[in-house]
Amino acid sequence: MPVTIVIADDHPLTRSGLAEWIRKNENFTLTGEVDDGSSAWDAVRELRPDIALLDIQMPGESGISVAQKIKDNGLPTRVIMLTSFNAQPYVMASLRAGASGFVLKTTAVRELEVAIKQVMSGGFYLDSRVAGTLSDRQMTPEPLSSREREVLLVTTKGFSIKEIASMLCITERTVQAHLTSVYAKFGCRGKSEALLVALRHGIITIDELLEGTSLDGDN
Amino acid sequence: MLRRKLLTVLFIIILLPILVVLFESVTAFMSQKKSTTDTAGRYVQSLADYASDRWNDGRPAQINTFLSLIADYGYNMLISGEKFHTQSAGGRKASARRDKFIPGMVAYVTSRGRVISSSENADILATIFTGSMAETSGRAADNGNIVGSFMFGENRVSYVAHISTTGNRMVYAVAAVTMLSWMGRNDFNMMKLAFAGILGTLICLVGLFLLRGSVIKPLRALSSQVETIKWGTETPKFGADSIFDKLRVDEISSLKKAVTDLAYRMIDKESLEKRYLGDIIKAQEDERGRIAQDIHDGPIQVVSALIQRIQMLNIASLGIPPDASRQLADSEDIAQNLVEDLRDICDSLVPPWVSLGLASCIEEASGRFERQHSITVNAVVNQELEVPRETTLALFRIFQEAVSNAVRHGHADTVSVEASLRGGRTLEFVISDNGAGFVPEAETPDTLVQKGQRGLAGMRRRVELLGGEFVIKSAPGEGAEITVRI
Ligand SMILES: Nc1ncnc2c1ncn2[C@@H]1O[C@H](COP(=O)(O)OP(=O)(O)OP(=O)(O)O)[C@@H](O)[C@H]1O
Ligand SMILES: [Mg+2]
Prior knowledge:
heterodimer, A: alpha/beta, Rossmann fold, Arc Repressor Mutant, subunit A, 2 domains, 6-stranded parallel beta sheet, 54% helix, B: alpha+beta, Beta-Lactamase, 4 domains, 6-stranded antiparallel beta sheet, 5-stranded mixed beta sheet, 12 helices, 56% helix, binds adenosine-5'-triphosphate, binds magnesium ion
């Protein structure tokens, strides 16, 4: 039973290229091909594909907001973001919106098959180029203390320092100190970078990330 | 040049002519009095000599005729044509024969002061004679004349008299003319003069006092306003009108109005300039955004599609010989690099992380600047800060320029950036470097822009547009610190 896929991308050249590639692959069935955010949402709702390939920047509604709707409506479709941007912050936003994969348009043909397989088996896929920019700098990061890991995890879920402090019953200053220590160990600057490093090295799993968010229920 | 107060100058300008006129009139009066006295003196001298000659002739009838021709109409009529008759003034009527007369008074007086014979009403000459002999009243002029005055009714009458000896040593001929004034109708009077002087000065002082209220004070208020006003942001405030403003001078009112107009115009100009600069900055950012969008939607997509085709070819066509496959892989690499370059251009045109909030934006930018310039960037940004995108963009641009300046001019290797909330509502953004530093005072926005250096000026303008405060602290050898408060 081939994997059903809907692709949403407003740029015809990249969309048709990928569509052609999907059609040629006997493991996949392309059930929908749309060029803006709202038709992407309609297609996913009606066709219930296994995978939705969503461009981040689209007219009308962004891919991230479509992913958020899919997650909010509890649809079984898994989302892989398809983008031209190589900015780590988008990865973070995508993950928070419930996406399971992040693939660059320029590596899609080579990596998409692996990505889809990984995502279909419940995993998380991060494009090798996006991940690569990080792994260049540090091969294996220094291990985190359990408290540091905890702070990093809730931080990446989008809670503010104040919320984290009250959640973990520590002071804001301590939260900040833990984060600074995490960044130092990872050799990174911000939480988005730290999240990628953690995901890459299995320090935090995508399930932990998503599960926590859905449990809290409030985004 | 000596600084003079307007009031002093006005005082001198007004008082000086008064004093000059007073002085001139005193001098004129003196010389007039002298010449009048001289002329009168010569006249009475010849009158007295003539009387003496008649006495020496010894013909009483002739003496009587002579005496009857003489009438004291006053010397005034000689100098002003005005008749002052001591007789009529004294109550006795003047007779018709007085139409032809010799002005003056003549009396023949014994050495003891008894009047032998005299012209009408000339008994008084006896007193003058006795006085003169006793040298108690009257004043002997240099030519032997006697100058003096006596009261006649309500009038003080001045006289000039002369005493001539006759052949008979016991008898003297005394002649005199009287006059009401030395200078025609209105006599000169020291009291009047002093009064005029004091009155003039008083009027002058009152005038100056009023002038002080209605001109000097408003002028001073005006000039202090003009000195302290912040042009371009304030209008002059003129205090509540005082009573003197009732006598307000037209010129000053229009001066006030002109200053106020000027202030408003400066404000207009300033806000126009601000709006203009804001438009320029906005247009610039819009344009950058448009270009980035175009690159993203056009070239990047096209090259991405190209890369996809190459990848598909390389995977799908198993029959491709290894040589061609390597060529394809190289082509893909080239295209990948091209996409990276295009992305970098887009990112430098519009940093996409600006929309992710100040904290993420500064963190992201710090990392990039570290790699780009091989420096250390210490960023401490309060995660809580909620900042509008427009402010984030401005702060990012300032950060960008500050780092570029620190590296290019200061050769700094460490830059620190800190964003925090001060006093609840003020966002404080501080960028400091450990570079060579410079003298910020030497760099005013105008001179900078003239030199084609827009970095610092641009930062200041961006902050001004957000209604914030921009401070540069630096000195040679001490690095530079830029503080923005919004
Ligand atoms: N951080 C710094 N350290 C040392 N000198 C500085 C620093 N920042 C500014 N300056 C001095 O101030 C001058 C003005 O800077 P500004 O950014 O306005 O212009 P610029 O950098 O010369 O030109 P532009 O920014 O337009 O390319 C600089 O030429 C330099 O001499
Ligand atoms: Mg500069």
